[in-house]
Model the fold of this input.
Amino acid sequence: MDVMGDMATLYETGRFVQPAGQEETRDEATEAAEEARQRLAAEAGDVEAMSVLGAMLLRRGDLDGAEPHLRAATAAGDRAAANNLGVLLHQRGYPEEAAGWWRIAAVAGSAAAAHALGRHYRERGDEPAAEYWLRQSAEQGHALGAYALADLLEHRGDDEAEKWMRAAAERGHREGAYRLARALDRRAAAAADIAEDTDGDNGVGAGAAEEAEQWYRQAAARGHRRAALYLGSILERRGELKEAGRWYLTSAKDGEARAACALGFLLRDAGDEESAAVWWLRAAQEGDGNAANALGALHAERGQTQTAERWYRAAMDAGDVNGAYNLGLLCAEQGRTAQAEQWYRRAAYAGHREAANALAILLLQGGDQTGAEPWFSKAAEAGSVDAAFNLGILYTGRGDEAAALRWYERAAAAGHTEAALQVGIARLRDGDEQEAERHLRCAAGGGSAEAAYRLATVLDARQPAGAGPELGEPVHRRTECEEWYERAASQGHRRAQVRVGMLAAARGDVVEAARWYREAAEAGSRNGAFNLGLLLAREGSEPEAVVWWKRAADDGHGRAALRLALVYARRGELVEGQRWADLAVTLGPGEVAERAARLRDALREELSA
Done:
C-alpha cells in the first residue's frame, strides 16, 4: 500500500500543509532552524511540538528519529500524531499495528486517519468496513476520503459514486476531477447515441459534455496529463486548434504518448511535417501504434519504403492492426502480391474491415471470385461501405440484380456516391421516378457527374414542351435541369457537354454552344463533333466542319457520314461522296441509311453516265 494520503494526511496540524499548487519554499537552513526550535519545545514536554517534529522527521524519511516523538505525542492524546504513527508503522511493514493507531485517531475525529483506515480495510477485502471508514472521512470533507469512497462505490456499480467523485473534485482532487469528467463524457456519448436513434435531444448530452469539459480543464490545470489529452481532443473537434495544441503539448511533455501522436497530426495538418515527425517518433518509441503508422505513411510518401515498412511493423508489434493493413498496401503498391495478401489476411482475421475488403479485391483481381465473396461480406457486415458497394458490383456481374440492389442501397445509405447512382439507375429502370430522383440527388451532390446528368434528364423530361416567355419575362431563365447539366458538363461529362451546347444554341448563344461542343468532341464525343460541324457549317466554316464530321463518322456517326457524302457530291468529288454514302448506309440509323442509299445510287448513275 502506498503512503497514506498527501501533505494533509501526514501533517494534520495544518502547520505544514501548503495550499494546492504551491511548493515548499523554505531552504534547508530555515528547515533546520525550525526543526531545532521544535526539538527544544518537544524536549521541554510540548506535546504539539513532539507531533510536529515527528511529522517533520517522517517527511524526511527518518523513521527511527520520528517514531519516539510520535509515540510520545500519541500517548498524550494527539490525534495527528496517532495518524502519522500509523503511517510510519505502515512504512515499516506493520499494517495491523498501523491500523490500530489509525482507528484511535479516526475515532478521535481524524478524517485523514479514517481515510487511511478505509484504504487498509479495502486492501484486505473487507469492503463493508472500508466503506464505513471512508464514508466517515468523506463526510468530514476529506478530499482523499471522498475519492476513495467514490472509487469503492464505482467498483460496485453504485450510483452514489458520482456524488462523492464530485465532492472530491470540488475539493481539488485532480484524479477525481478527471474521473468525473470521464463519467460525464460517457453519459454525453450515450445521450448522443439515444438522440440519434430517436431523432431528438433533451439537452442531457450537451449539458454533460459541457460539464465534462470544465472538469477536464480543472484536472489538466493541476497537471493531469490524460485530462489534458481529452481536453485537447474536445477543443480539436470544435476547431479550436491553437488551444488544443497547447494542451496536447502539455500532456505530451508529461509523457502521454497519445497526446504526442495527436500533436503530430495537428502539426502535419498545419504543414509542419518535420515537427510532426519529431512528436510521432517520441510517441512511437513509447509504444503508440498510431504514431508508428503515421511515421510509416510519412516515409512511404517520401519513397522511403524500407523505413516505412519498419515503422508499420513497429505499429503491428504495438498491437495496432492498422500496421498489418498498411504493410499490405505497401506490398501491393510494389507489386508484391503474395506478401500483400499475407498482410491483408493477418489484418482481416484481426477484424480490420478495410483489410478484408482489400483482400477480397486482391483475390477478385486474381480470378478467385469464390474466395473474394466471403471477405467482401465480412467487411460489409463490419461496416465497410466500399465492401458493400463491391458486393453490389459482384452480384451485378452475376446477373443477380435484386441482391446487387440490396448492397447498393446499403452503401448508398452510408453515403457512398457511386452506390447512390446505381440505386438511382435501378429505380429509374423500375419506373420509381421519385425514389430515383432522391438517390440521384445524393449522388450528384456527392460529386458524381453521371448522376448530375441523369438527374438533369429526369427534370428535363418533366418540363412542358416549348412554351415561349410571358410578356415582360426575361427571354431565358436558367432551370434546375440546366444547372445540373452544366455541373455535369463542367466535370467533363461528354453527353452533358453536348446537351449544354444544344441549350446554348437554342437560345442563340453560338459562342457558348461551340465551346461546349468542342470540349465534348475533343474528349471523344462523336455527337459533339457532329454538332460542332453543323454549327461551323452554318457560320460559313465548312472546311473545319468537314474535319469534325470526319472524326464523328470515323467513330460511327451515320449522320456525319451522310453530311460528308453531300459535301463531296456538291463539290463534284463523286467517288469520295459515294464512299461516305456507303458508310452512312452501314451506320444508319434507318432514316439516314435510306437517304444515304438514294444519294449513293444517284452518284453511281452519275459516275456511269
The radius of gyration is 40 Å. The chain has 35 helices and no strands. The chain has a mean pLDDT of 90. Residues 174-198 form the longest helix (25 residues).
